[in-house]
Structure formats: structure tokens, C-alpha cells
Amino acid sequence: MEKLIMLSPGRTTSINLSVQLEEVFGKYIKIEPYCLEDDLDFNITNSLVVLSSPRIIKGKIKSLVDRGLNYIIAQRVINHRYISELLDLPKATEVLLVNDRAETTYQTIEQLEALGINYIKYHPYYPGIDSYPRLNIAVTVGEPNLVPYAVKKVINIGTRQIDIITLADIARRLGLIDKLADKLSSQYVNEIIELLNQINDYAKGLKIVSSRLNTIANCLSKAILYIKNDGTILVSNQELHNILGYSSENIIGKNINDILPQITVRNHNKSEIVTIHNNTLFVTAKVIEGQNSEDGIIYIFEKSEEIEKNEHKIRRMTTRKAVKSYYTFDDIIYESKEMEKLIEKARTFAATDSTILIEGESGTGKELFAQAIHSDSRRANGPFVPVNFSSIPINLIESELFGYEEGSFTGAIRGGKRGLFEEAHGGTIFLDEIGDASLESQCTLLRVIQERQVRRVGSIKEIPVDVRIIVATNKNLVEEVNKGNFRSDLYYRLNILPLRTLSLRERKSDIFVLANHFIKNYSNGQIINIEQILDNEAIKALYEYDWPGNIRQLENAMEYLAVIWQNGKKLSKNDLPEYIISGSNVSKNTLLLDILGKDMLWLLSKLKNSDGLGRRYLAEFAKNENIPLTEGQIRNLINKAESLGFVKSYTGRQGTILTEKGYAVISLIKI
Ligand SMILES: Nc1ncnc2c1ncn2[C@@H]1O[C@H](COP(=O)(O)OP(=O)(O)OP(=O)(O)O)[C@@H](O)[C@H]1O
């Protein structure tokens, strides 16, 4: 070989790389720079050509290659010697990285980052790029002429150099490897050492800053932890080490997921409770954003003493955790149009903050709806606190709902207790079976609803609460008002957004979807649907049955069937629970029910077993059986039955008695 040709698209790069080749090979061979503008008039048979990148092989170079050009493609790397100015830039500085083409620009960014200079934010810039941020500093690799005009400071870290592997390859192709091996390797080693020294100086600077940071962190009384966005732990303090029982060497640089997998919160100002080595800690995340390479999360841990102060917050969180996820509208299983409409209505209600009154028979999904409304509301992340008025002893309702002050009554615990309204702060309180609330608690409820403040038993201080109230009842509240059992002013306050859940009788088309859902659950997926285990007559019986206990009763029936079913044989009607067999006895039932209505059938059935009953007795029976009929309504019913010839009414003690016709009708069905 007589000549070593350096060929690159632009002249500057070509000359710069020739200088590098000159330093290494100048003693042994003539080196000539060429660029694409030049006539490529060298002799290809006695020249070795170094191409600055593979992309150059096209057009006239491609035809040279086809004619047998002897060439090497250079791998290029950042020139270590000129990066000191770059190392002086403060952390997170934003710069334009300028090069001649998109590909080489991205390559350069990658190489700088790989060198460890990854604390600077590089924005690519090359001729023809669509958009780029207007920045004051540009870094270029030997292309200062391409830097956009507005840039104030240009750091030229020089043309990217031919790397050591390519140089060794050239030496081998020129038959010079024995002569040059030592020189090449020592030059390489020297450059690496020089680079490491420079980067180390920078790291030393960083170390000072980080030790200052650690000193400050250690002065804080709270345990803290600072992680990068990828989870790497950067800073921790002594308080945290005391809790963890580790020293900083054991955690710095590790990933939080390995050290503290319990911590899952990643959102700003969000908290969670974690247990670390039997310590219950309240952890709050503070997200640091917009600092580029310093983006990350600081965790602040509060220990037991502080937890006491935060008890309220914690209790709210634990109650929320206890029922980890509330039902949503998506959990409601249905097929019927009626339910679709109801859900649509409930969704509209969920978007508001107004009080909702849910009325409906037992087991029709009142609580399900209340939870779904909560989950769909802006309070979804707040607590949902259910209160069942029928299960709290009357004398405790006040203190349960509103809490009490220390010493306000015998048995009151030290420090007093927060009530359920306070627990529900920021969320929803669900007052179930509100029809069972005593007149006294109704009075207090009314005050809370009006004033949105609670006063603990034994205290004079009002505590403001922000809660959405949803109440539910299976009683007819209007009737309760008429009977004097429910305060009318409270009723009007509650009846802002009324919702009536539907009994299964009113949406028979949902029976099968629900039955399939429950049977699948109770058989652990073994039974896919009821057709798999029931014959036609049994299925029909399920459809005809009235389901007075609604979905809860249907669910129980499916659990029963899943237990008694044995693979291979279908169950018949007689295998169904007894109440279904007798209840679905005749379709005459449904027919009569449709014609006469359930109230009339109830009246006739009561009279069937007596020698005559007065209105007051009938009203008493209705009340005991939770049948929403007032004395007035019973009077109307008796009048109607009389006009149909089913009963005869007498004044005085005999009251109302069944006629033969009435007896015949009621004997047709089983109730
Ligand atoms: N459409 C539905 N899809 C799925 N499950 C339902 C549906 N409706 C009700 N359920 C289930 O039926 C059961 C009874 O529902 P829920 O407790 O909400 O009824 P309720 O009207 O509040 O009853 P009660 O008045 O007796 O307290 C629950 O297990 C609930 O999950």
C-alpha cells in the first residue's frame, strides 16, 4: 500500500480524522484527506481507504467499492481530550447536541451518556430537524458551523475520533501491527486514564454536595429516603437506618423495590401505612419534578409518636384498606332494561354531592348501589363508611355516629373517640336501615345534615365534616312519616335524589344472569350455567318463584345447588330448596298476583286463618311482617275486596271475614 485515504462526506471531518491518522501512521505511509466534493482520482489498487461511516457507501463511492476498493469503515468515538469543558457544565444543564445528521447526532448523545456524562440533558440538533428547544448552549462534535444562530455558547468537543479497534485494523491491513501494537495500546490506556481522572474530579465535586446533603438529612428528626425515578435509592438518613436496622452502605444505590417492597405509593402527597420490622409507619411521598436528572421521590416516614397525632388519618386509611375495593357499577350484573335505566340514573347522581335516598326491598342491592355511587364519585379515594341503624343499640347510636369526649360517660375511653361521621370525612357515609333510627337520633341527624358539623357527645365544640350522605331503607318512609315514626323534616332533607332498587320480581330477565354468576362462583367455575345442572322444569320453577329475599336469596339458593349437585345428573324441580318448590307451585299464583295484587292476596290470606279481623289488628300484622300498609290503605283494600265479593265487613268486634268466594280464591294459591 502506498497511500492511506481518509474519506468522509465533509471536508472538516476528513481533515480532522487525517490528523489523527497522521499521528499514528504518518511515519509509515502517506495520508490524504478526501471529501465527497472532490474528484476521487486516487489509485484504488494501491490505496487503503478509511470511510468515516457506512452511510457514505452510495453513488460514486459505491461504484468504487464495486470495482474492488480496499476499504475500512471507521468506528468513531468521542474525543476524550476535549470534554473537560463539558464536564464543567452544572448538573441538569440543557444543551443542544449538534451534529451533521440525525443518526450521528443520536449516536453522539448515546456515547456521551455511556461515558458517564449523563447528568446533562442533550437535545438533538442537526440540519433539517423539525423542531428543537431554543437553548443558550450547544455542544458539537467538530461541526460548530452547524450550530443555530441564537445559541450563545458553543462547546466544541472536536470531531469524533476513529476508535482503537479501527486503528488496530488499519495497522493490520497495512502490515504494521507488530510495530504499532504497543503504541496503540498505551495511547488507549492513557486516554482512558485521563478521562477517568477528569470524570473523577467531577465525581469528587458531587461527593461534597452529597455529603452535605447527608449531613442535612441526618439532622432531620423524621426518617427520609430519596429515590430516583427508576427506584434507585440516593439518600437515606440515620433515622431511617435506625428503623431498618441497616447502614447506608447497604441501601444507597440499591433499588427501593428490593429494600422496601412494602412501599408502593408513588404519587405526590399520597400516604400509606407500612410495617417495617414491626414498626407501623406512616409514609408520605413528595414527588420532585422538573429538575431533570434530579427528578425522583422523597419519602418521609412518621414514627409511632407522630402516628398518634395522625391517628385520624390512619384510621380512615385502614377502614378504607379493610374493604380494599368497593363495588363499582361494572360489578352490577343485569340484563334487563329496567336495571340499565336505574344504573344510568345512579351514575348521574354519583356525579353530584347531594344526599341520595335508596329505597328497596331487602337484598335488592341497596348497599351495592351505594358503594358503586361512591366509587363513581369524586370522593372515590375517600372512605366509604357504612352504618347500619338496625344493628347499633339505640343508646349507642349517638356516640357511634358523632363520637364522644373523654369522660363523657362511664366506659368512655381515654382521649375520647371519633364518630363515624368524622371517619367518613372526605368520603361517603352510608346510613343503612335509616327507617330504624330512633326519633332522637333522627333529630341529631337532621342537625348534622343541615349544618355539616358534628358535636361529640359531652363536648361543646363543633367539628366540620365534609361527607356525602347516602341513606337506604326497606321501609316505606312516607308511611313511616304518616305513622309518626319518622320525622317529616328529616325525610324531606333526605329525599333529594331518590333511587328505588328493583326486586327480582320486577326484572325477571335478570334471574338467569345472576343465577349463572352465583353458581359459577360457588362451584369454583365448575358449573358454567344453570342449564348444566338443572332440567327444564327446575329452571322454570326458578323463573316463576317470587324471590321475596331477592338477590341474596337467589345467591343462597345457588350456593345450595352447587353443594348438592353431583356431576353427571341433572337436578329436577324437587331437588330445589323447599321454599321454591312450594312457592312456585302454580302459575295460578302469578296470574292471581297479577290480577289482584299482592296486598289483596295478603289480606285474604290473613283473613283465611281467622274468624274475623279488625283494621287495627290487620295494620299490626302488616307492621310486624314489614308489609308497607297503613290502616287507611287497609280500609281501602277491604272496601275493594268487599266490592269483589271476597269479604264481608261488620262494625264492632267481628271486623272483616272471608266469604266463600274469597276462601275459594285464596285456596288456589300458597303464600
Ligand atoms: N345486580 C347485582 N349483581 C351482583 N350482585 C348483586 C346484585 N344485586 C345484589 N347483589 C348482591 O346481593 C347481595 C345483597 O345486596 P345488598 O346487600 O346490596 O342488598 P341490600 O338491598 O342492601 O340488602 P339489605 O336491605 O338486606 O341490607 C350482595 O351480596 C350483593 O353483592
Topology, pairings included?
Layout: E1 3-8, H1 11-25, E2 30-35, E3 47-51, H2 59-66, E4 71-73, E5 76-77, H3 84-87, E6 94-98, H4 102-114, E7 121-125, E8 137-140, E9 153-156, E10 161-162, H5 164-173, H6 177-219, E11 223-228, E12 233-236, H7 238-244, H8 256-259, E13 271-276, E14 279-288, E15 296-302, H9 304-309, H10 311-322, H11 337-350, E16 356-359, H12 366-375, E17 384-388, H13 394-402, E18 403-404, E19 417-418, H14 420-423, E20 428-432, H15 439-451, E21 453-455, E22 462-464, E23 468-473, H16 477-482, H17 488-494, E24 497-500, H18 510-522, H19 536-544, H20 550-564, H21 578-583, H22 587-596, H23 598-608, H24 615-624, H25 631-643, E25 647-649, E26 656-658, H26 660-667
Parallel strand pairs: 1-2, 1-3, 3-4, 6-7, 6-8, 8-9, 16-23, 16-24, 17-20, 20-23
Antiparallel strand pairs: 5-10, 11-12, 11-15, 13-14, 14-15, 18-19, 21-22, 25-26
Bound molecules: adenosine-5'-triphosphate (ATP).
Adenosine-5'-triphosphate is lined by residues 332-334, 360, 362-368, 432, 474, 501, 551-552, 555.
Fold and architecture overview:
Keywords: ATP-binding, DNA-binding, Nucleotide-binding, Transcription, Transcription regulation. Residues 209-260 form the PAS domain. One of its GO terms (biological process) is regulation of DNA-templated transcription. GO terms for molecular function: ATP binding; DNA binding. Residues 332-563 form the Sigma-54 factor interaction domain. This protein is of the alpha/beta class. The chain has 6 domains: 1-79 and 159-204, Nitrogenase molybdenum iron protein domain (Rossmann fold); 80-158; 220-309, Beta-Lactamase (2-Layer Sandwich); 329-500, Rossmann fold (3-Layer(aba) Sandwich), CATH 3.40.50; 505-578, Helicase, Ruva Protein, domain 3, CATH 1.10.8; 589-667, Arc Repressor Mutant, subunit A, CATH 1.10.10.10. It contains 26 helices and 26 strands. The strands form 8 sheets. A 5-stranded antiparallel sheet has the order 12-11-15-14-13. A 5-stranded parallel sheet has the order 17-20-23-16-24. Strand 25 and strand 26 (656-658) form a beta hairpin. Helix 5 (164-173) runs antiparallel to helix 6, helix 11 packs across helix 12 and helix 23 (598-608) crosses helix 26 (660-667). The longest helix is centred in the N-terminal third of the chain and has 43 residues, at 177-219. The N and C termini lie far apart (112 Å). Mean pLDDT is 82; it is low at 307-323. The structure holds adenosine-5'-triphosphate (ATP). The site of adenosine-5'-triphosphate has 17 residues, from helix 12 and helix 20. Residues 332-334, 360, 362-368, 432, 474, 501, 551-552, 555 line the site of adenosine-5'-triphosphate (ATP).
